[in-house]
Amino acid sequence: MPIALSHAWLVNDNMEVIDPTWVEETSDFAYFGVVFNKKFVMETAAKTKCYGILDTDYLNRHQLKREGFPQGALLHKFHPEFCKSN
């Protein structure tokens, strides 16, 4: 893509991006983001009635911008440096 887009995708256990959105081959695309815990995504979607997490932060009065990600929001396997061990 010639421009940055706010966009969700999937990632498997091998850290390979799975993006069913684009019709064309995505090998030239670069992805930058975070892997959220499914429970956090589902709870946030139920609260905001939207599936976006970062783009809909305004629906939570910018809680993520003010406080950062709550404990358990990021999937530890992909973000061990940001997740506290239990």
Automatic annotation (TrEMBL):
It comes from the Bacteria. This is Uncharacterized protein. It comes from Chroogloeocystis siderophila 5.2 s.c.1.
